[in-house]
Specification:
mainly beta, 2 helices, 2% helix, Pectin_lyase_fold/virulence, Right handed beta helix domain-containing protein
Length: 463
């Protein structure tokens, strides 16, 4: 991607701070409880040093006008007891700027205590998530792990008080953005094990690239969810077992002030999407409400349904219709032969039990002859073998369709001779180019560019 780590603007590391007037903890340089006194060289800069452990039992806020730098190997550990009498999930609010500067060897970690990082807690929603408000100008999430989020928004939750989410109705995504003028780079990171969406964008320009999303959403929700007021490149990501879709692309909320959502989504690999969701929803990609979305060169593996674009008969209708200038094509839909262990039957259910059957299903939101006209789609059991992507280490016929526990040993590069290496879009049309592929996005005086379009399906080619 041509990205490099940012250098801190501060000449020495600052004491830990919770970004508020609370100073009920102290710092020994290695571990801190709720933050310590703020005494930075630059009063607008806060630095949490490399390999520091910060334990938060209260809501944390990066104040407007200030920047928090979190260095490589730092761990931010959230209490699962909650705050106050309501046990409000601990929220990490960004009113200023946030720069997470992890490395491959030493990622930044946002999590809970190690004893609570269990399979039983994957969808427990143990803390609130990172909420970048409408005053957050910039955010970098690089080589960072964010996990066990999705606490319920309740009365007293900062996001409810700010009007971002509704108490009693919403749960926290792992990352929320809410500034139409904000700039966000989320790269080389892992967003996993959350009750709600991995990323929920209500505004801003963003590069979302080269990440792993896993187990996003318990009862609904997506890996990446984009609304009006956003301009986004989503590329090179692996999305494993989102409850509903890997990509939910919508211009919901569009107005004169909040512009149409613009998305380029290419070279992503989406696996096992939709099987944990009832109804005829979900399965990989959903585009609606006038979003201008170009979705191409993606590899869908064992997803419940194909890309859906409802109400094509109402084009460019911001309330209902699919934007007919969008291109959702040149994608590859692969299917194993295994049957789902959850099959939803009934009046409002599809009864789909195999990925190939879901791809062949007569869905009311499949726009045949327009969407995926040139895509490779496995629609019969006898076609599964020839369309097997031949991953280096992932058996598409063995992993259960409803599995959501990500195996670190999986390798989604493909072997030589894989069918996903040919037939993809060549990336030449001007309207299909990444929004931030040339000029890039400048965050903290560093310019980041989106990945180039690769002429193969999915996030990875051969090694």
């Amino acid at each position: 991607m041509g990205m490099s780590l940012l250098a801190t603007a501060c000449s020495e590391e600052d004491p830990l701070s919770n970004g508020s007037d609370q100073t009920d903890g102290s710092s020994d340089g290695n571990e801190d409880e709720n933050g310590g006194d703020e005494n930075p060289v630059d009063s607008n800069t806060i630095v949490w040093p490399a390999d520091t452990v910060v334990r938060l039992s209260e809501h944390y806020t990066v104040p407007e006008g200030k920047s928090l730098y979190i260095k490589e190997g730092a761990q931010i550990i959230f209490s699962t007891e909650g705050v106050g009498a309501n046990h409000t999930p601990v929220e990490f609010t960004v009113n200023g700027n946030l720069y997470c500067e992890g490395t491959a060897e030493k990622p930044v970690l946002f999590s809970v205590e190690e004893s609570e990082r269990t399979e039983d807690n994957i969808f427990a929603g143990l803390w609130g998530g990172i909420v970048a408000t409408e005053t957050c100008g910039e955010m970098l999430i690089d080589h960072t792990i964010i996990e066990y989020t999705g606490g319920q928004v309740v009365e007293g939750s900062p996001a409810a008080t700010a009007g971002i989410y509704t108490a009693g109705d919403d749960a926290y995504p792992q990352i929320t953005t809410n500034n139409m003028n904000g700039k966000y780079v989320i790269t080389n990171s892992v967003l996993r094990n959350g009750w709600s969406d991995g990323i929920y964008m209500m505004g801003g320009q963003a590069i979302i690239a080269n990440n792993i999303f896993a187990a996003n959403g318990y009862d609904g929700a997506e890996a990446v969810n984009v609304k009006a007021g956003c301009k986004v490149d989503v590329a090179g990501n692996v999305m494993f077992s989102p409850n509903t879709n890997g990509l939910k692309l919508s211009s919901s909320g569009q107005s004169e002030e909040r512009g149409k959502a613009l998305v380029q989504a290419y070279n992503n690999t989406i696996i096992n999407a939709g099987w944990r969701r009832d109804g005829e929803k979900g399965g990989c990609v959903y585009a609606e409400k006038n979003v201008l979305a170009n979705v191409f060169n993606n590899l869908m593996v064992n997803c419940k349904f194909r890309a859906q674009t409802p109400n094509y008969d109402q084009p460019n209708n911001p309330e209902e219709g699919y934007n007919d200038a969008s291109v959702i094509d040149y994608n590859f839909y692969a299917s194993g032969t295994q049957k789902s262990d959850i099959v939803y039957d009934g009046e409002d259910e599809s009864g789909v039990a195999y990925a190939w059957a879901g791809y062949a299903y007569e869905h009311e939101d499949y726009n045949e002859g327009v969407v995926d006209l040139n895509s490779i789609i496995t629609k019969a059991a006898e076609d599964c073998a020839k369309n097997d992507p031949k991953f280096v280490n992932f058996d598409i016929n063995a992993v259960a369709l409803t599995e959501y526990v990500y195996n670190e040993g999986w390798d989604f590069h493909v072997q030589a001779g894989s069918p996903v290496l040919s037939g993809a879009y060549n990336g030449t049309d001007a309207n299909m180019q990444p929004y931030f592929g040339t000029e890039g996005l400048t965050v903290n005086e560093e310019t980041y560019t989106s990945p180039a379009i690769e002429a193969h399906f999915g996030a990875y080619g051969t090694k």
